[in-house]
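Reproducibility note. Readers wishing to regenerate the assembly model reported in the main text can use the exact inputs given here. Chain order matters: entities are listed in the order in which they were concatenated for prediction.
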Amino acid sequence: MTATLITISVYSLWTAIGLYMAAFTAFAFDLGGRAAATTVNSEPGTIAAPTRPRRAARVATALTVLGFVMHLTATVTRGIAAERVPWDNLFGFSLVSTLLVMAVYLLVLIWVDLRFVGAFMTMLIVILLGGASTLYYVDVTPLDPALNSAWLVFHVIVAALSMGLFGVGFALSVAQLLRSRWSLDETNRGGFRRLLATFPDPARLETLAYQLNIVGFVLWTFTLTAGAIWAEQAWGRFWGWDVKETWTFIIWVIYAGYIHARATRGWRGARSAWLSIVGFLAVIFNTTVVNTLFKGLHSYSGLSS
Amino acid sequence: MSRPSDSPNNAAQPSRPRAQSRPSDHIDSAEVPNEPVLGLVGWLRWGWRQLTSMRLALVLLLLLALASIPGSLVPQRSADPNGVIAWQQADPTGAQILDALQLFDVYSSVWFSAIYLLLFISLIGCVIPRIKHHWQAMRSQPPKTPSRLQQLPAHRLVSVPADAIPDGTAPAAMIDAAEALLRSRRYRVRRDDRDATARGGERWSVSAERGYLRETGNLLFHLSLVGVLVTVWIGGTVGWTGQRVLVEGETFANVLSGYDSFRPGRITPVLPPYSITLDDFDVDYEEAQANALGKVLDYRASVTVRTPEGGTEQSVVRVNEPLRFGGTNVYLLGNGYAPRIIVRDPNGTAVFEQAVPFLPQDSSLTSMGVVKVPDGLSEQLGILANLYPTQAELDTGAYVSIYPDLINPVLTANVYVGDLGLNTGIPSNVYVLNTDGLTQVAGGQSGVRAVELRPGESAELPNGLGSIELVDVPRFVSFDIHWSPADGWVLLFAALSMLGLFAGLFVPRRRVWVAARRDGDALILEYAGLARGDDPGLEQAVAQIAEDHGLRVGLPS
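Running the prediction on these inputs yields the following structure tokens for the assembly.
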């Protein structure tokens, strides 16, 4: 039974990666189509967006949803096989954190048309999930006594959820920077600029990224606090500058800076977008490099050294 | 002031520039012109304004993030003292340079402390004026209605022709209804009607503001961070920690001499007179799953606590489940085997009898321990022993342990004689045998096989020194005992900061105005909104108020 479930989990996982790749291709087609169909008006800087239905984008969204369902299946079956939450090692955490990045993206998609970052999102997930599946895969093993706590559920799932929010915020900040860097004008009306001109304007992108990032920040604050409560129970102190604690703190401070930047004259726009990008890169660094190469108490990657 | 006098910001604080409510570089504060700086007081004032500016807070935050990085790259004395020692041995010169830069103690270093202390001074300098301002804002009415509402970010104009005005509804009644509506939406309202003699003509209006909780939350968040910092500092200063290794069957009395190591705090520790006996230490191992054979499933230290009052309590200490007793917390942080060894002289008199805690070397609990017998034999005796809980033999003849439980326990002992170096007065590590003044007489290159024992067995020592017996192999645990009286306070401030963060980021602070004026026989209704801080829902809120107000007064939709 367990073996069957694990087989289902692995097959679902690779199917999900395949579907995300297919979705990426369709999203890329959509972007190409939009750039081609966009005409530049005589008034500089304005465009006539294509009016025909975006069939490729619909296909891409459908493929992404299918990929998400398979991704969810892979996560749930692994959890059932392990008879607990599946995120007790680096592979399990990668599985659930990328799942939540996708969940946040698809959820926001219900209200806001974010299909222009679809190609970016799916490629990001293919890289992260594919990387985790090849580099970090470990079999389901019994739970480490140090992880046997209710905090394993809350501390980790909330961390993964804030990663999801920061991830989509990151994509929007990248879009914002591109959009403001390569704008259409009298002399420059190349395909890439025409494509970017179909994105929402930078201020709108900045606001959207901000809304996601502040929710992420609140959840990250919870992650930090819950982690401290757990650390007191497990290690006898709530804070000890363990490498993982340190990086969680660094990320918290970066996003705190980002929120202040949004309220500081001269720091709105590109500068705050850079902070959002640096913040998410720090999150990825924390999950990958800090977990595998740095020596500390959070040695739960499950990979033998 | 550079703003026109009818701007909403000025309307808000007729005599008080907006810049006072927020740092001068806040995105929606007025530009403060560079004033000429004169004299010491001027410089101090300028310096203070820089220190409490949002820009400096931002720079300090980014510096703090950067300054935290080296502590994750270089081992820290606080978290990984052995890593520091290893670094010093591998690269003495480099380690000296790192040490001079306080890179082994980043988080208590001068430069790291300087950054966060400046940050907190900046925070306090920023928050105190804001508390004062917020207090005044909470007790004052919303600002007057600006004369040109169409300039506001959210604006809606409804023109009601004479025949669509519900019978007998005067403009004043329309605004009465708006006032009631806004009040029911928990806005603070202020009626601001203008008569015909005023500039701009006759107008009825209501000015409303909501979301004061946003600033309250914001201030609570920042003050709670100060609370966290202060309580963490107090906790680190007054609390104490101690360690004690306890073999099964042994009892630890909570007195200073009962600890193996003890780090006192500023306050002289008052140790509640209880004692803890380790009755049993049980470990569950995975026995079925092939790819996780021998993985630990659970650790349970069964203890008997004798309370100061003389009663006894049974309890189980586990990882993640410390024993909280008498204001102190007892954590289960380490464990291993402590083979009980007896060394006898040639007459059979025991000269050493002790359960010796061995240090685990790997996941199969191959363990290493040291026995030092300075007196009672013809020569000083040192033993370097290895315990293999489940012994197996490699092709090379070397022993390994293949499973952490005691399935086939074997102890091997390399025996040394000579000078143990205990008489020099230099404190020595009980887990290390300094072989400089010793000659090996069994094991290694000595030409005599290492002594090999199973539980219950005895063996003769070489050179007629006497004999050694392995009685049994109990387990030991290592307890950390902490008194950290400030933990609860830190948690309280952390929880408050989270509450504050929630309100400060998600409660929208907005001002809304509804105004009515006559335009011949027709009626012009205006709805306008202004966000204070990020407020993505502003336009929708204004539209909703316009719609609900229309329904209330019976306008055709």
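We highlight two features of this model. DSSP finds nine helices and two strands in chain A. The first strand of chain A starts at residue 39 and ends at 40.
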